[in-house]
């Protein structure tokens, strides 16, 4: 342990460790043998090591994604964020540490300084998204853990782990790590069975709408820069922003546009949405998207690619454009009826 700790006391880590110490609630004390201090030291070492890796990877051209090196980067960012929360850092903090990384290493690796603005914007966005995911998912997971302990259990139901992943985007690796910290386990083989079953259902569901299939490239391009936050489990109405609009002509062809007018059919993509999107299970929500007297009637909501909810419908009055601040309102009675039919034996 002493040898490992000494690595982080070298000049290579001085600036980074000092920055972590500044923004956290506790002070680092390598000589204190108390468990709390050891846990704090563990967290700060992980954050320091991950912060270096994050900024070096991005300066090398890697961006967060769901595959390959991009997925490794995303996992590292998420792990650093979680350990930051464990030592009391509530605000966004990675770019504060990034300043120290750039300061320490940019003379040797000038790419760090050259790509600083790009890296900082990318990381702030990723940290913002995952902070929300972590808050919502952790709350549910801790409730499950407390229940398991109360019942003297040892395993989390793989279906619960899948629901965390499917509903909140909560990474299964993080679920397994938190379970391990609580001396609990997850049957990964069964979890993967759920994942495979879900993928097969989603794949078969896409076939019901060939138009979605033929326009997947539009959605994939949108998903590169946007991940819609679903907030419908907490409420059925929300203030949000229009991120994208897709116009549908009389032949069913689709194209991105900045504005959609009264009488036109289209699809609206919001920054956050209370609308449940169909992706192989329950039917999507109906409702309206409005700005003042201008409103769009939502007849269906679907998830054609992961992270993108499309609200299908028609402008009933006025016009709406990208960037508009709107009110998204689910038809709650319709949702209740759908839920009853979906869960009925």
TrEMBL record:
PROSITE patterns according to UniProt: AA_TRNA_LIGASE_II_ALA (PS50860)
Keywords attached to this entry: Aminoacyl-tRNA synthetase, ATP-binding, Ligase, Metal-binding, Nucleotide-binding, Protein biosynthesis, RNA-binding, tRNA-binding, Zinc
GO molecular function: alanine-tRNA ligase activity; aminoacyl-tRNA deacylase activity; ATP binding; metal ion binding; tRNA binding
InterPro entries xrefs: Ala-tRNA-lgiase_IIc, Ala-tRNA-ligase_IIc_anticod-bd, Ala-tRNA-synth_IIc_core, Ala-tRNA-synth_IIc_N, Ala-tRNA_ligase, Transl_B-barrel_sf
SUPFAM superfamilies given in the database record: Putative anticodon-binding domain of alanyl-tRNA synthetase (AlaRS), Translation proteins
Record domain Alanyl-transfer RNA synthetases family profile: where: 1-345
Pfam families on file: tRNA-synt_2c
Annotated Gene Ontology cellular component terms: cytosol
GO biological process: alanyl-tRNA aminoacylation
Protein family per UniProt: Belongs to the class-II aminoacyl-tRNA synthetase family.
PANTHER family: ALANINE--TRNA LIGASE, CYTOPLASMIC, ALANYL-TRNA SYNTHETASE
Record protein name field: Alanyl-transfer RNA synthetases family profile domain-containing protein
Organism of this sequence: marine sediment metagenome
């Amino acid at each position: 342990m002493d040898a490992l700790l000494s690595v982080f006391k070298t000049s290579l880590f001085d600036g980074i460790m000092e920055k972590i110490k500044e923004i956290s609630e506790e002070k680092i004390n390598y000589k204190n043998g108390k468990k709390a201090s050891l846990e704090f030291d563990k967290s700060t070492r992980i954050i320091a090591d991950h912060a270096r890796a994050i900024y070096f990877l991005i300066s090398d051209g890697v961006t967060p994604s769901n595959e390959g090196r991009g997925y490794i980067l995303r996992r590292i960012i998420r792990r650093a964020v979680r350990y930051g929360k464990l030592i009391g850092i509530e605000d966004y903090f990675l770019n504060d540490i990034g300043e120290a990384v750039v300061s320490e290493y940019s003379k040797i690796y000038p790419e760090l300084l050259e790509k600083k603005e790009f890296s900082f914007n990318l990381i702030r966005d990723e940290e913002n998204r995952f902070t929300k995911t972590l808050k919502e998912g952790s709350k549910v997971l801790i409730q499950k853990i407390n229940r398991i302990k109360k019942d003297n259990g040892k395993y989390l139901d793989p279906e619960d782990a899948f629901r965390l992943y499917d509903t909140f985007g909560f990474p299964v690796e993080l679920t397994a790590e938190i379970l391990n910290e609580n001396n609990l386990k997850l049957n990964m083989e069964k979890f993967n069975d759920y994942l495979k079953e879900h993928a097969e259902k989603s794949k078969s569901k896409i076939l019901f709408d060939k138009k979605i299939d033929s326009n997947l490239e539009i959605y994939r391009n949108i998903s590169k820069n946007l991940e819609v936050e679903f907030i419908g489990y907490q409420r059925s109405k929300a203030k949000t922003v229009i991120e994208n609009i897709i116009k549908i002509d009389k032949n069913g062809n689709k194209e991105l546009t900045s504005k959609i007018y009264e009488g036109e059919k289209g699809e609206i993509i919001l920054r956050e949405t209370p609308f449940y999107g169909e992706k192989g299970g329950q039917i999507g929500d109906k409702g309206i998207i409005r700005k003042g007297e201008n409103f769009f009637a939502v007849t269906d909501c679907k998830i054609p690619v992961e992270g993108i909810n499309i609200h299908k419908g028609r402008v009933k009055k006025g016009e709406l454009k990208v960037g508009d601040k709107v009110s998204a309102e689910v038809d709650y009675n319709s949702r209740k009826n759908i839920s009853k039919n979906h869960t009925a034996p």
